[in-house]
Structures are given as C-alpha cells and as structure tokens.
Amino acid sequence: MTSTTTSSHLGALLMAPVNALMRVVDIPLRGLQKSTGIGGMAAFFLAPNMLIFGIFVLLPLFINIVYSTTGGTAFFLSERSFVGTEQYQRLFTCTNYLDPMSCQEDAFWTAVGNTFWFVVLQVALMILVSLVTALILNRDLIGRSFWRAVFFFPVLLSPVVVGLIWKWILQRQGLLNFILYEIGNVTPYTWLTDRNWTFIATIGVSIWAHMGLYTLILLAGLQAIPKDLYEAAEMDGTKPARVFWRITLPLLAPNLLVVVVLALIKAVQIFDEVYVLTGGGPGTSTLYLTQYIYETGFASALRNPGLAAAASILMGLVLVVLTLMQLGLGRKNENKGKR
C-alpha cells in the first residue's frame, strides 16, 4: 500500500505543471467554444493542417499553373515572360499523334506512349501478381509470417536502392549473367541496352518493388471475409473456381479498387528506380512522362520550366480523371450490390 501511495503522489506531482498549463489554455478555448460553437472548434483545430496543406500543396500547384503560362529558361517568375497557352499549344502541335516524330515535342509524345504501355502492362500484372500472392499467403503455410515479411520488405527500400540493386543484377557483368553462365554456359547478354528487354525490366523491377504494399491490402481484405461463407460453400460442394468468382472476388472488390487506384497513380508517376536503372535509355525506350518533365524543367541544357509545368498539369489532369472514373465505377458497383 505504501508503494502504491508513493507512486500516486509522485504521479500527481509530475502532472501538476501539465494540469496547470491545461487550465490556462482551457480559458481561451472555452471562450472560443461559447462564441463559435462545436463547428468553430473543429475549424480551429483543423486550421494548422489546412495551413500546411495550403503552403505545401495548393500554393505550389498555383505557382505551377502560373509557370505553364510563361516562357524562357529563367527560374524566377519575375524574369519570365507571359506567353499564355503557348506551352500547351507546343505540346499538342502534331501531324499524327500516333507518330511522335511528327510532333513538335516528339520527346513528350514518346514519353506519353511509353508511359501508356507501361501503365497498362504494369498495373495489370501488378494486380494479378499481388492477388495471387495474397491468396497464397492467406493459406496455412509453414512460416507464413516470414513469407509475408519477405514480400513486404522491398517496399521499405528506397527507390534509388531498388534501381541500384537491379542494375547490379542486370548489367553485363552482373549477377544474372553470372548465374546463366555458370548454369548453362550462356553468353553474357546486355539486358540494359536492348530496347525490348529494358522496357520489360522496368516493369518487372517496379512490380518487385511495390507489390508488397498491394499484397498487404488484398490480404487484409481476404482476412475480413467471413469464414462461414467458405464453410457453407464447401458443404454445398461448390468448386474452388466458383467460390473465387462468387465469394472471394466480389467481397474483395473494395480492396481491389483501392489497389487499382494506388497502382495506377504510382505507375504514371514512375521515375526514381527507372532513372537509376536505365536513365531513360537505351535511346528513349524507357523515357517516361515524369522523367521528361524533370529533364525539360531542370536537367536539360535548354531547360524550359514552363513547358515542364504544362506537361505536369496535363499529367495531373489525366490522373484526376482516371481516379474519378474508377471511384465512380466502384460506387456504381457498390450500389448494385446493395440492391
């Protein structure tokens, strides 16, 4: 009892300054609540977050829009001239949009085409691989926690580290060629200088680096499905394929929608690991839209921040439209399910 009493007195002594400070702070907060109500208090506590959001998100977005209406190579807006929609017109000046070489900004449309095919293939394969992996990891496996950690580990790595690791594996004197030579005496191949293999490599590396997060999301959805449904299906003698299509996939749809949206946004914004791995080469075979924006705005000798800003705004608009379409489709399917 003596020890408990001593601990209580010590805790009260330590908390005394905190309680005194809280009583002082409480005076203006009570006055604010009386004058503005609960809604005003909510706005008061949200104000710091909204201020940070405005400074680091809305303000840069507004500045980017302003940049897209200016021309020249200078970075400071005071040194740039207003050109209106000239940068957008330059991006869309094409004889044939399917032929980048017929466009004034051929590098932009090459990057758009590369990004389109990368997104289509990478997102489709990402969802498939993540779903299959989640289904396997949801089973009663030996060392299941270990395997879950193994698949999630690449997500914790920096994209630069991912690019360096795979560059070391895929270069001519890298680990892959060493293994192929030791196993089958295969002549070393230049994986990172072949246009077709390099494009495939960027897709594979991206899937390896990010699938852990999407697998985790799908795994959480699988574990939330009531086991009673599977037991009832098993008692009815339902085939596993039918169970998957009739039970697992419909109930996993909300998680799949989240995965599709996140994977789509991430795929369109691909930059770090690809830039380290291939630098956009060979040629422009792995030049994606984000790298084009970076090089046009900062890295190129003939930099054009206004053109880069216009390209980034167009990319952002496409992302917004695609996300809204997917969310609308998901809400439509959800309403159908409720009926």
Give the SSE layout:
Elements (H helix, E strand, L loop, with lengths): L1 H66 L2 E2 L9 E2 L3 H6 L14 H32 L6 H13 L2 H12 L4 H10 L10 H30 L2 H9 L4 H29 L3 H6 L11 H11 L5 H34 L1
Helix pairs in contact: 1-12, 3-7, 3-9, 3-11, 4-7, 7-9, 9-12, 11-12
Description of the structure:
This protein has 339 residues and is an all-alpha fold. It has 2 domains: 2-67, no CATH class; 90-338, MetI-like fold, CATH 1.10.3720.10. Helix content is 76%, strand content 1%. The protein is built from 12 helices and 2 strands. A two-stranded antiparallel ribbon has the order 1-2. Helix 4 (144-156) crosses helix 7 and helix 9 (240-268) packs antiparallel against helix 12 (305-338). The longest helix has 66 residues, at 2-67. The mean pLDDT is 87.
What's the gist of this structure?
Helices cover 76% and strands 1% of the residues.
Output the radius of gyration: 27 Å
Overall strand count: 2
CATH homologous superfamily grouping of the largest domain: MetI-like
Query: Which structural class do you get from the secondary structure elements?
Result: mainly alpha
Question: How many structural domains does the protein architecture include?
Answer: 2
Taken as a percent bin, the fraction of beta residues is under 5%
Number of helices: 12
Low-pLDDT residue intervals, each spanning 5 or more residues:
none
What percent of the residues sit in helical stretches (DSSP H or I)? over 70%
Shape: globular
Distance N terminus to C terminus? 62 Å
CATH topology of the largest domain: MetI-like fold
Q: Mean pLDDT, as a whole number?
A: 87
Order of helices and strands: HEEHHHHHHHHHHH
CATH architecture classification of the largest domain: Orthogonal Bundle
Q: What topology, given as strand order, has the largest sheet?
A: 1-2
Largest sheet: 2 strands, antiparallel
CATH class of the largest domain: Mainly Alpha
